[in-house]
Amino acid sequence: MFWTEKKLNSRIKELEPYRYRDRKAIPSFRFQLDEEGAVGDRPPVGGEWPELKTGERWSGRDLYAWLAAEAEVPNAWQGRTIVGLFDFGKTDGGTNAGFESLLYVNGEPYQGVDGNHKEVFFSADAGGKTLGLIFRLWSGLEGGGKPVEQEHRIKTAELAWLDESVDDLYYTAKAALQAVERLDEHRPEREDLLSAVNRAFNQLDWTNPGSDDFYESVHEARQTLHGTGPNRKTPNGHRPCRRPYPHRRSLVMAIEAYARESSPFFLIGSASHGEVS
User: Which whole number is the average pLDDT over 165-179?
Assistant: First the structure.
């Protein structure tokens, strides 16, 4: 089972970027230093705004700056879950090391963006509109010790729409594998859970990742993992084994068992195995 776990962990990581469909790059921003760094300051109107291209670096120590761009959302994305993907630098957990930023959308404060919060979900009616994006950046400090200038890079700036079926398969499978790693090897839920994820991922067609056939196989794998999928042939011609055990129930039970073992404060909620159909 060790190699099955290793294979599945690898496949789950490969699946992650396919959650985002039709990525649209934001190629450059306008950049302005914020010399005063006043608390609660609003986006400036005038001043010099030199171009900073995606891929370029910015640096400073305890430095504030503004980053601005307009992003057109395709009209075809109406009704989709529209997201912004932004990776502007490193953020250290729990200290003052690394950058932070506050995003303004159309002039209004919207969401914090940093190394731990790279996804921005826009409103459902954003399709076909132009979004005014302004980030107030803070370079951060060194987290203690000798003062050091912090260097960051505008690594990613994109719009996309989220394929919620792929997103669900990715996070459900990831949670399931984390539960497998945590559960005692003699727990019956462990084998059921690992088998359920393996059956689902055996349905993925990796012949041409990103193609319509690929996404169809992903959606069917999600149904299989939740216990509602068709008995579809996998790309190698085999049909996945369908055990009589309701593996959706096993999935919920195993994740609950993982949560209990991870935290003494875990309480079973509305998703308890007694309520799974």
Answer: 93
